[in-house]
User: Which sequence fits this backbone?
């Protein structure tokens, strides 16, 4: 069940990606800061930050009880995750509209993904419904 199906607000992760050659302008950074402040003021934005370059990532796997480390992102792709925003919206559709207004939507790509609810909260809602 998605938040849109259940009739209540939910959290959505905006995964902001761009290619390695991208370099933001001062104007773009100012527009992003304003977007962040406005959503914070409205109580929609929970958190968010840019990420260090994918080349600084470490990928961790445990197979057969042994930890395997790989330098770099888990997948090589033309666009890498560069930032994230955690927002609260009434539906996936509302989160998509919100993402379309993020300044990076015109400069990169934004994936909008619903966040699984806390299992205790899911169980409470089920029991409330009878």
Assistant:
């Amino acid at each position: 069940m998605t938040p849109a199906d259940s009739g209540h607000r939910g959290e959505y992760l905006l995964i902001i990606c761009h290619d390695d050659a991208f370099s933001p302008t001062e104007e773009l950074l100012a527009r992003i800061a304003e977007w962040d402040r406005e959503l914070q003021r409205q109580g929609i934005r929970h958190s968010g930050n840019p990420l260090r370059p994918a080349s600084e990532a470490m990928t961790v796997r445990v197979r057969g009880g042994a930890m395997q480390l790989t330098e770099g992102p888990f997948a090589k792709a033309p666009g890498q995750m560069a930032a994230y925003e955690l927002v609260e919206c009434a539906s996936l559709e509302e989160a998509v509209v919100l993402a379309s207004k993020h300044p990076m939507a015109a400069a990169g790509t934004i994936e909008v993904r619903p966040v699984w609810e806390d299992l205790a909260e899911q169980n409470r809602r089920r029991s409330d419904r009878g």
Observations:
- Confidence is low (pLDDT under 50) at residues 1-6.
